[in-house]
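Journal club prep — side note

Before the paper discussion, L.F. wants everyone to see what a predicted structure for a comparable chain looks like in token form. Sequence:
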Amino acid sequence: MLVFVVVGLFIGFVSYSQDTLILQPGPLNGKDADIRDDYPYNPSPTSPDFIANAWTVGGIPFIQRSLIEFDLSALPANSILISATLSLYANIFTGHFQHHSSLSGSNRCYLKKITEPWSDLTVCWSNQPQTTNLHMVIIPESISPLQDYPDIDVTQLIQDILDDPSAGFGFLFQLETEELYRSMIFASSDNSDPDLYPKLTIVYEVEQSTQIVSQGCYIGNYSFQLADTAQVQSVIWSFGDPGSSANQSTLLNPSHTFDIAGTYVVTVTVTYHSGQIQEYQTTVIINEGPDLIEPSQLLLCENNPLSISIPGSYSNYIWSNGQSAPGITIDSPGMYSVTATASNGCVISDSVLITSPAPLFLSIGYDSMLCIGETLQVKPLITGQYDSLVWNDGWDNINRNIINTGEYTLKLFYSCGEVSDTINVDFGDCESEIWFPNCFTPNGDVANPYFLPKYKNITDYEMVVYNRWGQLIFTTHDLDNGWDGTYKGSECAVGVYFYMATFTLNRDLHPVRQMDKGSVTLLR
């Protein structure tokens, strides 16, 4: 995605005092709860767990999520957010059978901003509030069952809440993949151990006096000026950006382009007509512009138009296809772009390449009937790319040999869903046949180079070959592995040899053990 912005308004300040606010409420003033889909109407405001879970109880599967909201009213109204970190501590006293678990796969989790008001006394699965994926925080997979997660960076989520309190009501905690036997279990504000309560640490600065005014939005060009230019003779500006070739200016109202997000200390040294020299500073926090189009909105699947919507509070939408609504519907791949005006007056642009994968085709063959003992080789015909596969009986390779009666279904999964194909295979009792030739010619041509039987539906086979003096010169258990007319690597003489074979065949739908013996003439 490409993000660029045009000018809005930002006020700089001469100096700041930095402070830290730590919020770690307990049962009396904490606001958190967990919700479960197997109890969709039951609130759980006093659970000791702050949990993201997919498990079973009594054999019944369920999914669990948690909500938390911190009271930010102690943060001064004129403060500038520097950082915000959330510390979560493993609940060693949980009543669940498990702690952190990746039993069936990664237990990676999300923290998402909640955009609707909610009450810990009434919230449940059926009335859980809406959330947004914008700036959601990923909590990585655990490496131990009781792992703590200190100092999770939630700066952007807290900034979003401060920017628009009407659409910011804490965080929703859930598994990235809500499949059974995955969990993260931390302590909630109702836990028995106060040291384990969730803790939010906010570092912020408070303005002291307004002396520098700057204009700009996110990464890009900012203009600066003094709030009071009376009696100013000259100025020297330093933008706190040593990587730039234009880090200084002597213009009264200069501009500077910040190419990288970060915190910059802008300094201006003012010489007044009186000869007095005064230095002023302001801290400018440059953020990357927000993404208007979320990464999940990149794929267009066949016969399924894609809807793209812009979350958050914006106005004046202009799409590259001429539409002016907050969202559009797309039915063909290509590059799409949009500009919108944020609540702070910044105009933000974003673009996205919509791709469409090739259709996926699968065929595993036709229904088949075979004799017991035979093997059906299955080599599926596939066009297109797939990500993973599963057979209904648990086989994990694409190709396979089938020896048992049954219904066989193969599913292929890809970015637009799945395709499947099914065959029915039946194995029945078949009559057997076996016939041994009376001569063979291992003379290097392709005609009769081996002494071996013609057969049908034969099992448990063994054949031995003797010369005229009763010496054993060949033995095999493989119907397709015949005698090549040699013994210990040397060619045997032309003449008559004797064989004896034992095997199992079907007679009247019953297995019968039988022996066959005779002679064979070796010719060259």
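L.F.'s comment for the group: The longest strand covers residues 495-507. Keep this in mind when we get to the figures.
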